[in-house]
Amino acid sequence: MTETPAALREAHHADVSGGWLRPAVFGAMDGLVTNIALIAGVGGGGVSPRSIVLTGTAGLVAGAISMGLGEYTSVRSANEQVAAEVAKERRELERHPEAEARELADAWVARGLPRDLATQVAEAVRRNPEEALRVHVREELGVDPDEQPSPWSAATSSFLCFSVGALVPLLTYLLGFTSLWLALGVGAVGLFVAGAIVARFTNRPWWTSGLRQLLLGTAAAAATYLVGALIGIQGGLS
C-alpha cells in the first residue's frame, strides 16, 4: 500500500503553539518532586503521620497557587513583550516600507534564495500590510503574532497538574496508611508513569523517560530525607 506523504495529511504535526504542554509537564513533575521530597524530609525527621499530611497538604496548596500565578505572569509578560515588538515593527513598516522590504529580501537571499526572486516576493508581501507585518515578525522575532500562548491556559494547566502530582505521594496517608516508605514508593511509581507519559509527546522511549524522572525525583527525596534525619537526630540529642 502506498503511503500518503505527511505534507498531504491534515495535522501531521502536533500542536506546539497552545502554551499548555510545557506548564502541564512542568507542573506535574514539580508537584511530584516537591511533595515527595517534602514528605521524605519531614518523614526523615521522625514527625507523626498527621504532621506529614499537614505538611504535604500545605505544600500542595502553596505550590499549586505559586505555579499558577508564576505561569500566568510569565506567559503574559512574554506576550506583552511580543506585542510591543510587533507594534515597533508595524511603525517601521508604515514609515520605511521600502527599507523593510529590502531587509526581508536580504534575509531570504542569505538563506539561498536568488536575489531577483527574493525581491519580487518581498515586494508582493509589502502590498498587503497585515501579511507583511506577520512575515516580518516571523522572520525577525521568530514568533507568530497570531499564535501566542494563553496565560490563562498556562496557569490553569500548571495549577491543576501540580495539584495532581503533589497529591500522589499523599494518597497512602489519606487512605489511612502510615508508612513513609509506602508513600515514597507510590510517589516513585508516579514519577515513572509521568515520565513515560511525557514520552508520548516527544517520541522518545517511554522507559528511558520514566527512568530519568524516577532518578531525578529519587535524588531529591534522598537529599531531603538525609537533611530531615540529621535535624531529627540533632534535635533528639539536644
Describe the structure.
- By secondary structure, the chain is mainly α.
- The chain contains 9 helices and no strands.
- The protein is elongated.
- Mean pLDDT is 89; it is low at 12-18.
Helix content: over 70%
Please write the string of helix (H) and strand (E) elements.
Answer: HHHHHHHHH
| Strand elements, count | 0
Assembly context of the chains: single chain
Low-confidence segments, given as residue ranges, are: 12-18
Structural class comes to mainly alpha
Protein traits:
membrane; elongated; Ccc1_fam; 9 helices; single chain
Itemize the secondary structure elements and their pairings:
Elements: H1 21-44, H2 49-95, H3 97-110, H4 115-126, H5 129-141, H6 151-167, H7 171-174, H8 180-202, H9 206-237
